[in-house]
Protein 1
Amino acid sequence: MTTWLPNAVVEHLRVVATWPELPGERYVIDRPIGRGGMGTVYVARDTALERDVAVKVSNAPAPGGGLDDRLRQEARVLARLEHPGIVPVHDAGLLADGRLFYVMKLVHGETLSTHVARIEGEAAMLGIFERVTETMAFAHEAGVVHRDLKPSNVMVGRFGEVLVLDWGVASVMAKDTTLAGTRVGTPGFMSPEQARGEAATGTASDVFALGALLFWMLTGDAPPLTPDEATRRLRAAPRRPVKRLAAIVLKSLAPDASQRYAHAADLAADLARYRAGGPVSAHRETALERAGHWFVKYRTFILLIAAYLVMRAMFAFLR
Amino acid sequence: MNKPVLGALVGGILGIFDGLSALVSAPETAPQIVGIIIGSTFKGLIVGVLVGWYASRVQSLAKGMIVGLIVAAFFAYLVAAMPQPDGTHYYWEIMLPGSIVGLIVGYATQKYGRARRIA
Amino acid sequence: MAFGDLSEGYWRPSYHYLRLHWRLPADTAEDVVQAFFTAAFEKHYVERYDPTKAKFRTFLRVCLDRFVQNHQKAERAEKRGGGQPHLPLDFPGAEQELAAIAMQDRGDLDRFFHDETVRALFARTVDAMRRTFEAEGKSVVFRVFERHDLRPSPDLTYASVAREFDLTAAQVTNYLHAARRRFREQALVNLRALVGTDEEYRDEARELFGLEIA
């Protein structure tokens, strides 16, 4: 006699078959909140500190595979990168069935993919992008390359915090768990050298992804393959950027990695100069543009001196 | 450079030019121009130090510029109150440009210069 | 794919499909299932499967549809006689299950066939687990799993199951870990035997359990 399983039991079995049973009694799993290629994220209760945390569990069917290696790598990268833009890791270990998990801060918010629709104005948009760039600059400084930056990997928290997620394919200097020649990244946001599967992808690959992210925030689309088409689309974008900002985007998206900013920090610096109204390295300005920026920068001073000179001239004239 | 020193520098330089400008706005004062420049520079130095001192304690562009305006106007008034050899007073000619110099010093000391160190 | 896996994994979904979608009478559905799997074995249906065109279960369902059409034509032409080899299939059991199957979305045939395949896959897995746990002298592990996961209810807790079986809550936790892991592993083994390619296996495992097979 074969067992008969009603629909409710079939669904229950699907869930419990992979339901993580954490060792000890500290963390109690509540519900799944997201699933990626590498792991599933659950909300859990940390009974020791009486707070909710997020637990990421490997999607590997059995312990010890490549997926576990990537999850372990991600946990270690996150632990190494202590930065407000990176989710802090609290704990890591093995489930009762041997699969890997790690515990991290639970962030309430939404990914940039959905949040972007509610961003009002260039300043707010660049504010978010600048935070992502600063986080990446920190990671690059620590020798870590993300390699899969995209809108769904950026989380905007309820209180405006901006976090870069999913460091599972990150490369840590010489210690790299992804195979040489393996394509990592997401089409549209991965650099040409990543798309070709080149082993030597470095910080400039993340710079490309940052450029793609900014392009996407401005136009609503991932960047096209050619710089000419990218320029055309930027000009037609709803949030049409001025020349200097467009130049920053296009320099980040240069097909040749050596033509891009070398590090995210260089991009961040150029962006900060743009936001301060100054000249940017990505755009060679004409004398008129330079004068205009100089005037904008020192306008109060110039106006005060002009007022003084007008006053003096007026008195001389009245005599 | 701390803010009082910066204020003194800006105030002093503007004071020199302010004194020299008398040659244009009031050519008949040419015989007394050296005294005018010295007095104007001295006035600029004092205004600069006071406004710079204020800026090192209060970080507010608006307040700094208003204080610069008032202090410079007050010292310009003291200068303007001294009659010329012919007994005339140049209140407007001295106080209006002098007040603008105060605004400039107030702006410069708020924007630039090292603020007071917090112990 | 072994013939045993093919018939064991798919005969029950096929029977339910014929009864509910084709509205065949029970005895006709039995005949068609018997004939279909016999023909599948004799005429090497599996070898005709092209993984670039469809999933294996879709291919099999389309084969079954064609087989039924041909079967009906043949029946109209001449009454078929007996004499075909018979597979040992539990048709009365499958018939009893019909009433419990909610075929809400009759339009999505592939979905229905998929759901029934999963049901059959899990049922086979549970049966295999029962046998192996008993053979290992660990039938209590299976009984705990059966109580907690095969007859789930909202008021059931580890503590209540522990009381029922005179165990500690920690033992119940451990037994459930072991049984669920065994279930997952066995279900994946059974699943691999039912699909045409490794890629299809990876897709099905991802859809079924959210697992990424290397």
Protein 2
Amino acid sequence: MRFRFPVADLPPECAALREEVRGFLAEELAAGRWRRGGDFATHYDAGFSRRLGSRGWLGMTWPRKYGGSERSMLERLVVTEEVLAASAPVAAHWIADRQSGPLLLRYGTEAQREAFLPGIAHGEIFFSIGMSEPDSGSDLASVRTRAAKADGGWRIRGQKVWTSFAHLNHYAIVLARTGEAGASRHAGLSQFIVDLKAADVKVRPILNMPGQREFNEVVFLDAFVPQDRVVGAIGDGWQQVTSELALERSGPERYLSSIRLIEAALAAAGAGASPRLREALGRAVARLAALRAMSIAVASELQRGATPQLEAALVKDLGNSFEREQIAVFRALRTELPAGGPDYASALAETTLYSPSWTLRGGTREILRGMVARGLGLR
Amino acid sequence: MAADPMVEEAAGRAFGDLAAKWHAGAMRREELVRRIEALGFGAALPSWPDAAAILRAQARSAAPVDMALLLVTRDPAAAIAYDPECYDGGGAAPRLQAPAAAALALGRLLQVTGALEAALELSLGYVQERRQFGRPLAKFQAIQHQLAVAAEEIAACTVAADLALACAASEGVGSARAARLLDCATLVANRAVDVAYDACHQVHGAMGFTREYALHRHSLDLLRWRDELLALRGGELAAAERLGGAALEAGGAWRTVTALMTPEREKGS
């Protein structure tokens, strides 16, 4: 086989951690401190993120001197699995914990790490992704936002779009053109830490289809960014961005998006579940097990220091297909459920409404299949 | 699951050689039985990782020797008592006692993964060679995406089989957890066979739909083994309902997934 997914059991220390996280979530839920959401990426609650941070469950793998807990990628995986499986509100810290922090840890200066990582790990500093533009979606290398050298730093001019929670988060990592694209189109790109509250950065709302203020348009009016906010090396932006993608694509968020609907149907049916419902649950369990093993395999490779980008793309596409299919399956089972499963209806509505975004964000289905095809030697 | 590459290579060569001679009519049935016995795989059940390497290699070579049955029953005559060019939809499985039935199911699962990989490899080669509209089929995005989706399902099937294999190796093929993982893998494999059977034939055009070209051997193997795998688990619906019942009992689908993927030695700690 051309893709490697070595099956591995999680290390023993993960079992106790999983129970600890489950206990915390159950207690919080019972106390009414949060409610289950229909979409991890838009279920935003800064207070919940702070409470996770105070438990040491953000920035878990980072060095202690930056506020981390020096735990393994697999222990981090346990926490992300459990918060997602519970449909908890993780959107505030998600990007910072998953990719902005690791990016700064890898390419940032010592001063940047000290300035941002502890705040991220405490659930107090949140980041947005500044990649997409009106004319640059899947074709990310075509970005036109420019950063020009200025006294003491850079001036950014241009526009980003679909910037989730730019109106609530503190910073965005902005990909901008600083030089010529070259034949590969990947040269001349750089990344900057931009303060979203700055006066020369305009954040305008775009309502998403379900009616939530999630997206924003972010306009940079010659926004000044000091030299010490450049991430990594000027001109290395493309390589830095692509290193984020293995982190972005293989996590449990790529196959657990519809778990709330599955669990809501299960809870509504109880012991008297019909054979049809049992069958659907069983089919979901079977595929969840395979997807989870693949996701763990990628996390294990990341723990070893590898960047399995093709495998990550494969897991995301397969996981997205699974989670979208479940909505139709469990919609069809509505009449198999006794009336009075209120969470079923809201879970069905929210997963259905948000599902188009699942196969777009973090790499569209088309981009991912193209990557898998490249792995097969077809491109 | 780490398999010994030497075992895999030796098994692949041995079965490839047998297959070629059998197909060319250069070997009589008695000779084939003798040669299989001489390979030594019928004498004792090898460890599961070695068995997996042998089964995958045999499936990839499409040698007309039923290695899974041979490993479980240790009867070389039974291992060639079928027509490799036939698929009759009968869906019957040999009557075996519980641990042997589970062992044969795991064997079929591993053979299915080998045959899926062989069918995909054949398809990847064919689309590079075959040209239409002035370019190789591989350059058409519609072809690329069909094979990408097939490769994804095949990867899932391989991982699901590896989960069952690892559990069989550590806790026994007859253990309760191995039974659940066999049910999972059976359902994942069933879907992978459907997707790959569709995509591999589609990209091959009429060539794949002949008895001259090699794809048909993998396809017929897949169809036969898949039906038998399902029969050994009591059918597709029974496997799914068992897993669904377990999820209801545990009070959650996710709880069930994490529990069935946790080794027994770590439970209750």
